[in-house]
Amino acid sequence: MINDEKEVSALRKQIIGLAACLAGLCFSGCRDVVLSTSLNDHILFSGTKTRLSLEECSLVFLDFQTRYNLYYENLGETDFWKEKAGESDFSDYLRDGRIKEELCTLVLLNDMASGLGVTLTDEERSACQAAAADYYGSLSDEEKSYVQSDESKAASLYEKYRIAQKTIDELCSGINTEVSDNDKRVMILQLIAAPSYEKIEQAKERISSGEDFESVAKEVSRFSQIEYQVSRGTLNPILEETAIYMSDGEVSDIIQTEQNYYLIRCVDDFDEVLSSENESQVFGKLRYATWSQSFTSYAKEHTVGISEEIWENLHFYQTTAFTSDDLYETYDRYLASVTN
Predict the structure, then answer these.
(1) Is the pTM of this model over 0.90?
(2) 252 assigned to some structural domain
C-alpha cells in the first residue's frame, strides 16, 4: 500500500513505530468492554485510567482519511478503500491495524504517565487549547459533520498526545545524549562485486596498475550502483569489518562473502555533513530502544478495552470534500517550543 505518504510529525512517528512493534501484543490483552450507558460520550478505548472518546478518535480518522484520499487522488485511483488487503478491504485493514495500534499505544502511554508522575503544566494546557482552536476552526462544514466533534475534544486529544510525549521523555531521561563519532560516522565507499575470484583478482590487478577504481567498477561489477553512503549496521557485516578501518583513498584486499567477491575503495572515511545528520537518527534509535523496552513490559501487564460495536461501524470512504490533514502538524506548531 501507500509508501510515500506525507511525512508525519516526530511524535506520531514515535508512537506509530512502537505501535507497529506491538501489533498483537497490545491487543492480545484487549477485550470488549461493556460501557456504562450513563456516560455522555461514546468511549472507544478504555485503559486503567485513560479514556478515548469517539469524538476524539474521529479526528484521527479524518486525518488518515484525508491523507490517503489526497494521495490516491493524485495517482488517479478510485475505490481504493475497497481494495483487498489480506482478508479484509483496505478501509478495515487500516482501521484495525495501524489506527487501532496507534490509539491503543496512546492510551497505554497515558496510563503509564500517572505512575511516573507525568502531568501537564498550565502553559502546555493553554498551548493544547490554542492548537485545538486553530485546528478545529480550520475544518470545513463537511469535515465537522464527519467528525461530530468539537474544539474541547480536539484539546483533550492534544493533551493526551502531549502526555504521551512527556512519558516517552521521562522513560528516556537517563540516556547519555552524546553520540560517539564511531556510532554516527557515515562513510562514502565504492564497491566492486564479482561472482568469481578470478574476475575480482583481474580487477584488483588493473587498479594496482593505475586504472581508475570507478571505471573498472563500471565495467566489472555485477551491480550498477558503485558508490554508497554507509553507516554502522547498513553494510554486510563481512564488508563492514574491513571498511570501518579504511582511510580516504585506500583500496581493500579481496573480500569474500556468501554471494560475491568484493573490492572496496574508501572515498571518505567520515563525511562531516552526513555524519552530523546521522547523529540525530542514531540518538532516535537509542531513545526508541530505551522507552519501547519499558513500554512493552507495561503493555504485557495491562489491557485496553475496546467498544467493538462502535468501532466496527467506523469506515473510510472516498471523497474530495475533505482537505484537512494537519492534525499533528498543528500540534507541533503550538507545542514544539513549549517547555515541559
Answers:
(1) no
(2) yes
